Amino acid sequence: MTHMFFILTVTLYGCATAAYLACLLRTSPALTLWASRLLKLGFTAHLLSTIHLASMIKYLPLTNMQESLSFFSLAVVGGFIFFERKYKVTTLGSFVVPIALLMLIASSSLHAGVRQLPPILQSNWFWFHASLAFISYASFTIAAGVDVMYLIQRRFLKTKHFGALFQKLPSLETMDEISYRCLTVGFPLLTVAIISGAIWSEQAMGSYWVWDHKQTWSLIIWFIYAALLHGRLTIGWRGKRAAILSIFGFIVVLFTFLAMEHSIIW
Questions:
Q1: Domain spans of the chain?
Q2: Per CATH, which fold does 1-114 belong to?
Q3: What's the pTM value of the predicted model, to 2 decimals?
Q4: Could you read off the pLDDT of 229-255 as tens digits, one per residue?
């Protein structure tokens, strides 16, 4: 049943991706509605697949690269659905949903059977830490998608190129607000994830901080987004500078997630 739900999820996400990309070329109420419906159906199937897998293996599927990519994709889609409903930004799906689809396809290319969890992962602190980390990463992913749109729209305004795509993109103010909201959600969650990860590390290895690759790069990510949030709140960073730093932070998140795949999740 898990496999059936997974195939259904990939199919629905693929159709939703095509619909959202089509919205960049031709916007219509019917197309927008179907794109949203397909994505919500895909999210439901994805959630059911995750729940069914968790019930089979008796733990939250976050302990290997295959499971992590799938959960990352689930968190990204869930976050996007929230922001799409709140801000009515259909075109954001053209930049975010394909990322979620690629993550899911990548997870399907990996093989990881049911295994006995090592003692180091048999801790409630691990599950708490890992869940929050992925939700924060999903927030940063959505922020990066919004900021790519922001830079494109800003370029259109600067060159006075008011074509069809310009008309479909949200205003700079709306995109800046969404990016900021993602930051105010993602950064606190990342902070709590790092703290809970340190507690887990102390329980599992006898030290709150061992300076392995995962911990070090997680701290680097924290400083990048701390600098971005500090700049927004105290210096008044807006626009291009904040967008570029947000995209850079997302690149570092991806590097940390993909390059450290053989390490224990941090």
A1: 1-114, 118-266
A2: Four Helix Bundle (Hemerythrin (Met), subunit A) (1.20.120)
A3: 0.91
A4: 999 888 877 888 899 999 999 999 998
